[in-house]
Design brief:
The chain is built from twelve helices and nine strands. It has 331 residues and is of the alpha/beta class. The protein has a seven-stranded mixed beta sheet, with helices on both faces. It has a two-stranded antiparallel sheet with strand order 1-2. α7 packs parallel to α8.
Length: 331
């Protein structure tokens, strides 16, 4: 009986360590703010035995992981992360760890760039790695980074894979591609059409799609199309023949809401095989007036909606304090 209790205690410790290492890995590759990392666990471990074994394991799952070599987060982020690991190790008088200082030396003199990779670990263990801009706004657009609603929509898709399995999916305002690539990797669509209109966004989007080996000759078949919401025609939409249409974080500028609603009206008038597509819009509500104006314009256009309630499985790292709403449109 006593041995059984010891085994259970040991199993709990192993589980906790596994979870903590995964938390560090997921947060590191998504370049989350350092305050969100589970530092307390490291401190308790160092307090109990002064061994740097856990920090060594953290290092192997982050800066020394093959994914970091292939798709590295920004130089500045890695430098801050390693400096924080060293600070906590030294504050606890832990055992010195040569590879930790070697890793820091590697990035101290490295040149910082305007681009870096962010990688989002899926439940399967696969990673969606994306080349993104370091700055939130650059080249006159916000489309060169991943925003919260795209992550929420990706989580919703992972929870509702049947909504995309075997279907043709059109994504509006794909940005750098997180949601669409996640759906292509995990939800088995028949065809997926990424779309955007900004030249730099389209260029980065195509690079990220190709990075994951998605092409017109793969399964699913994938294409990246330029789509100006003010110029898209019903003929263009009929040729796509979408069964499902998605968009994330596209309701942020009152100046483009009118053209978005006009496009959505055309989409709902162009059914594939006589059945209107299912349309899902996911938004981070930053300005209630802008979002309310979007809904009013939908109503004026004869488009109804209902809110799709949460929650979704928490598998991707982002700020969950944000007010995010997902709606389904219909006539």
């Amino acid at each position: 009986m006593e041995l059984s209790e010891q085994n259970r205690t040991s199993a709990v410790k192993r589980l906790n360590k596994t979870d903590i290492l995964r938390d560090f890995q997921v947060s590191f590759f998504a370049m989350r703010r350092l305050v969100s990392f589970p530092w307390t666990f490291l401190e308790k471990d160092l307090e109990s035995n002064k061994s740097s074994d856990l920090i060594s394991d953290v290092l192997k799952q982050t800066c020394l992981h093959p994914l970091c070599r292939k798709f590295p987060p920004s130089v500045r982020f890695r430098r801050l992360f390693l400096s924080e690991l060293i600070r906590r190790l030294e504050a606890a008088d832990g055992d010195p760890l040569d590879e930790l200082y070697d890793a820091l030396a590697e990035v101290v003199g490295a040149e910082e760039t305007t681009e870096c990779y962010k990688s989002y670990i899926l439940p399967s263990g696969d990673a969606v790695s994306l080349l993104e801009n370091v700055a939130l706004i650059s080249e006159g657009t916000t489309g060169l980074v991943t925003w919260e609603a795209a992550l929420y929509l990706a989580e919703w898709a992972l929870d509702h894979r049947q909504a995309f399995a075997g279907r043709t999916v059109l994504e509006l305002g794909s940005g750098v591609g997180l949601t669409g690539i996640t759906i292509c990797r995990s939800c088995c669509p028949r065809r997926f059409v990424f779309s955007d209109c900004h030249f730099s966004v389209l260029q980065k989007l195509r690079n990220n799609v190709q990075l994951h080996g998605l092409t017109e000759r793969t399964s699913p078949t994938v294409s990246v199309e330029e789509m100006d919401w003010t110029a898209a025609t019903e003929e263009q939409l009929k040729q796509i023949g979408a069964d499902a249409v998605i968009a994330a974080d596209v309701v942020y500028d009152p100046d483009v809401v009118g053209s978005l609603v006009s496009l959505l009206s055309k989409i709902l008038r162009c059914p594939s095989s006589g059945v209107p597509p299912e349309v899902f819009i996911c938004s981070t509500i930053r300005n209630q007036e802008t979002y309310g104006g979007f809904k009013q314009q939908l109503e004026k256009a004869g488009i109804s909606h209902h809110v799709i309630p949460g929650p979704v499985s928490h598998v991707l790292p982002y700020n969950r304090v944000s007010d995010i709403e997902m709606i389904k449109l219909y006539r």
